[in-house]
Amino acid sequence: MDSRLRSIVKALIWQLMGLVVMVIIGLFFTGSLWTGGAMALINALIGLATYMIYERVWAGVRWGRTLVS
């Protein structure tokens, strides 16, 4: 099982990558770095929160795990 810190670090790195991609997509579609950046930031904050909940729920699910000796 991952520690809480590991889950947080994984989520932050994932969201940073997504933020960069969303800024580029937002800039492409709106022509505005400000609007694209704002859209990306809102998306990243929502995504971070939902990903953390998702990770913690799955951390408690035993299905599909094997014990490594």
Characterization of the model:
This protein has 69 residues and is mainly α. The protein has one domain (4-58). The chain has helices at 4-30, 33-59. The longest helix is centred in the N-terminal third of the chain and has 27 residues, at 4-30. It is elongated, with a radius of gyration of 16 Å. The relative contact order is 0.16.
Break the fold down into its secondary structure elements and pairings:
Layout: H1 4-30, H2 33-59
Helix pairs in contact: 1-2
Globally, the shape reads elongated
Major β-sheet annotation:
none
- What proportion of the residues is helical, as a percent range? over 70%
Annotation field: number of helices: 2
Order of helices and strands: HH
End-to-end Cα distance: 14 Å
Summing up helix and strand content along with how strands pair, one would put the structural category as mainly alpha
Low-confidence stretches: none
- pLDDT averaged over residues: 87
Radius of gyration computed on alpha carbons: 16 Å
Number of distinct beta strands: 0
How many individual domains? 1
Percentage of residues in DSSP E strands = under 5%
Task: Offer a concise description of the structure.
The protein is mainly α and 69 residues long. It has helices at 4-30, 33-59.
Task: Please tag this protein with its features.
mainly alpha; 69 residues; 2 helices; elongated
